[in-house]
Amino acid sequence: MPQLYYPKEPAHLTVRSPRKLEEPLDEDGIEEVTIKSFVESSCPSLFKPYRSTWWLPNGHFQTAFCDVGDFSGVDQVVYQRTLLRLQDGGTLQVGLDFTPPSVETDLDPKTPIIVALHGLTGSSNAEYVRAILGTACLPKEKGGLGYRAVVVNFRGCAGVPITSPQFYSAGHTDDLRCALLYISDIYPDAPLLGVGFSLGASVLANYLGQEGEKSRLRGGCLLACPWDLKKNSEKLENNFLYRNTYAKLLGNKLFRLLERHLPALNKMPPSVLTPHIPLILSIKSTPTLITMDEHFVRLVGGSPPTFPMPSAHDYYRWASSHQRLSGVRVPVLALNSKDDPIVWALPTDEIAGSSHVVLGVTQHGGHLGWFEGRGTFLGRGKRPPRRWMTKPVVEWFGALGEKLIVDDPGNDSRETKVCARRGVMKENGFVVDPDEGKRDRVGYRVLDKDEGAEILRYYP
Fold first, then answer.
1. Per-domain boundaries in the chain
2. Considering only the top CATH level, what class is 3-228+323-457?
């Protein structure tokens, strides 16, 4: 059973009474509960034992299987893609993959939407993303929640083109703001729920901490969040085994991402990244994560004037999400594993000092593994073991979407409201949020079909 860490002074939430879920909402059908009580009543799987797959006995095996396992036979998801052009320079793009596709399924416009952020160099097709969405987006009659979902693919990932020398990072949140602005504009009555995986969890945690009560998301879930990037980096770099396995594995993923976009970058005017590209390419051995962060991410991992940063260590200090937990004002469930070889510093003190965040820590599970059950040995025959994390995450989203009441101060009827849409206006062809004032980076324009709209299908 996971060890749970709660705030010392937990927030109180307004929720539907379990006895009144199927009845019209009235004063007798609501109650005030603490975030602790809300988690305990909503996520029964957190209070049952988690037993890892016998042939994946520790975090190293669990993490390795994420890369070598065959997951093509499970959790198939069909996406419909929308590309957004952002305001900063009018050239930058973010890819949004919606499921189920609107051309195939007509859901109620009030259906809750899960907004997912993938991990480092991941995509909407990542097996850990599909493990959640493959269940949450199933119709209720098939055991799912019947929700809609959209995966925010970071710049340069999942086939999203790079049209200027800017990428993404663990602390850059403006791209998420633009995505949420678009989603809440086309689905103004839908509750928006966030889930982040690893680096995506860091982005989500930073966003929630920065936005506080203004968050467009009514709640979130953070899976294998790296929290304190500086301490994690020190662990990876100062240990011979970790430096030559995990640090190089992560560094190589960033190297391949940069390499994939070199043809496009070479056609662009010189930038702050330009003199560093030959240095990276000249490295004879596989670069470690801190090498790529020093010569790549800290330079172009976000928008000016924040980027470029003086050093990778400055980037780590700035992007570490544990320092922003006190600002979170919507219910959040975070899950980490004690034997995660990539994330080892957990923010138990910061959780205690927060008001809306609960942290569950399992003994085993590795980094985004959490495999349980037998499956077929080594996942042969496209039958890998299932991920334990799916159960509490789907339970959590079910509670956020159906139990939680978000009060609208201007409405006395106590109806369930979503404060996701604060009004948008058009400016120079872009949709922008007037609440952002002069922050012209938070705006978007949808690319037309000729510019990249497509249906993406993932089958075994």
1. 3-228+323-457, 233-319
2. alpha beta
